[in-house]
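Quick one: examine the sequence and fold tokens given here and explain what the tokens say about the fold. Here goes:
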Amino acid sequence: MSAAIPKTIPLLSGVSEIVDNYDGFVIDLWGVMHDGLEAFPEAVIALKNLRAAGKRIVILSNAPRRAESVAARNEELGIARDLADAVLSSGEVTWRNLKERTLPFYQELGPKAYLIGPSRDLGMKEGLDFQFVEQVDEADFILLTGIWDPQDTVEQYDSVLKPALKRNLPMVCANPDLEVIRGGKRELCAGSVGHYYEDMGGKVQYHGKPYQDIYRECMQLVGIEDGSRVLAVGDSLRTDIAGANTAGIHGLFIAGGIHSEDLHGLNAPTDMIKLVGLCQRYEQYPVAAMPIFKW
């Protein structure tokens, strides 16, 4: 029997209303802590207050870069390193799998890789025992970290993906997100290209939210065995809330992020109808929601 669909979802004015219910927090970055260009002041204050309250905090991001690179970028945006116990990224988990090659998928990869992604993701190549080639016809697999240009559509990758598909090249996707809002403008993420390749018939290995390998490591980092004492804060029902629900931890949904065009505020009764309807569409329900992450 499936769980009953809630008629309402508790709306919070601040995370302080439920802070005593949790010992650990798993915090998303993009859409929760920043917009890709600058940190949200209210979110930084919330993080500082969680730290002052002695809470364990892990920042969990679908950024297709190493964790150290993500932490350094956070500092540039105004999110200090000491505001979290650890930073974990989909790029870090992807890189480790490529490095260690313990999973059967990675053991079967050939030595030549073709990278699809912007220049800021080139650090993903460092330290790996693969030869990165300039032409997909020379590759044994594709490493997908992101799009080349913010204005790209998935169809613009046909010139790479169609030849790859003819040769049955597997793909490793380091960011399952479909899109992101950078400074108020929507851009495609690697996940959109990955799903496009899958729809063509290609084989894709994903790492990051909502896939559970990253949550298992995250729970080790947060150091709390009881999942009901851990709150994941995120703005995506498809990744953040779905991943938290599957991992057995609670999810706090930030409505002002990736779903902001579906939810114009969360105050009137009609807004709650929209929120529950959106959650029903994704079949994922948070324990609470708020417009922005704040204390």
User: Anything to note?
Assistant: The two ends are 37 Å apart (CA to CA). The domain at 15-62+209-290 is CATH 3.40.50.1000 (Rossmann fold).
